[in-house]
Amino acid sequence: MYQLSVCPHDTAKHMVEWFQFNTYLQRQLDCPIHFEPIDSFILEQTAVLSGGYQLCYANPLSACTYIQELDFIPIVKPIGLYDETLLVARKSAGIPEQRPLTIATASGELITHTLGLSLLEGLKIPQAECEFKVVDSHMRSIHSVLKEQAALAFVFNDTWHNLSESTRAQLDILAETRDQIAFHCFLIAPELTERKEEIQSLLVAMKEDPKGRHILESLGLQGFEPISEDAMDTLKTLMAYYQALYNSE
């Protein structure tokens, strides 16, 4: 039996749909696949690193970690979907002069946080003058700002676009990345190397199959496409940047 892990941000939005995805995958691959969602980014990554998983849909930095630590193989990524970060504050509050500056962040290990640090650099706000309030979800970062528990928050672009209009109306975007260099991706464990082309072809072909296309649409995805070498080089560069940031702390 294989085990599938999915990034908690995605299961939080589409729990039922990911179970449907797992059922589709089992039928197409003709093998049992166990899927049990984990609602914490840190717990999910810890579980995968502990072993026993063969299939993963991961955020960019988790993907890089699995590649580096477990020799996982990235095979496809969502078409036209990239991870970006917004820096937000309460409506009309701006950036306070008081230091340290409290910033809510879903986790220091996520791409949202790493890209967020690049926004601070662009605004000439030294990281040393910031105090990061680490929470376990992107929505809790937003709630921290709305409840005045933090002055600013790093927000995942997908989370922002799925907020209600009334919630967005209470916030201002102070800065945002538009790099299109980071993305979620689907990876397989080394033990599935012999089935790499089969699994990759299956995922890419989902958009052509009526049942597969319905599941993709319910997940908010256009489809999957193979990952190019250039895209992987970008992910590796991002991982190196991430490691340099945290080694300097």
Walkthrough of the structure:
This protein is α/β, with parallel strands linked by helices. The protein has two domains: 2-81 and 181-247, 3-Layer(aba) Sandwich (D-Maltodextrin-Binding Protein, domain 2); 85-176, Periplasmic binding protein-like II (D-Maltodextrin-Binding Protein, domain 2, 3-Layer(aba) Sandwich). It has helices spanning 8-13, 15-29, 41-49, 60-70, 111-122, 138-146, 157-161, 165-168, 196-205, 210-218, 229-247, and strands at residues 2-6, 33-35, 55-58, 73-78, 85-90, 101-105, 130-134, 152-156, 171-176, 185-188, 224-226. The protein has a six-stranded mixed β-sheet with strand order 2-1-3-10-4-11, with helices on both faces. α5 links the parallel β6 and β7 (130-134). The longest helix has 19 residues, at 229-247. The protein is globular and about 60 Å long. Pfam families: Phosphonate-bd. This is Phosphonate transport system substrate-binding protein.
Task: Considering the chains and any ligands shown, give keywords for the structure.
alpha/beta, 11 helices, 5-stranded mixed β-sheet, 249 residues, 2 domains, Phosphonate transport system substrate-binding protein, single chain, 6-stranded mixed β-sheet, 21% strand
**Average pLDDT over all residues:** 92
Order of helices and strands: EHHEHEHEEEHEHEHHEEHHEH
Fraction in beta strands: 15-25%
CATH superfamily of the largest domain: Periplasmic binding protein-like II
Ends distance: 41 Å
Number of helices: 11
CATH topology of the largest domain: D-Maltodextrin-Binding Protein, domain 2
Q: Which second-level CATH architecture of the largest domain applies? A: 3-Layer(aba) Sandwich
In angstroms, what is the radius of gyration? 19 Å
Unreliably modeled segments: none
* Biggest sheet character: 6 strands, mixed
Structural class: alpha/beta
Protein name: Phosphonate transport system substrate-binding protein
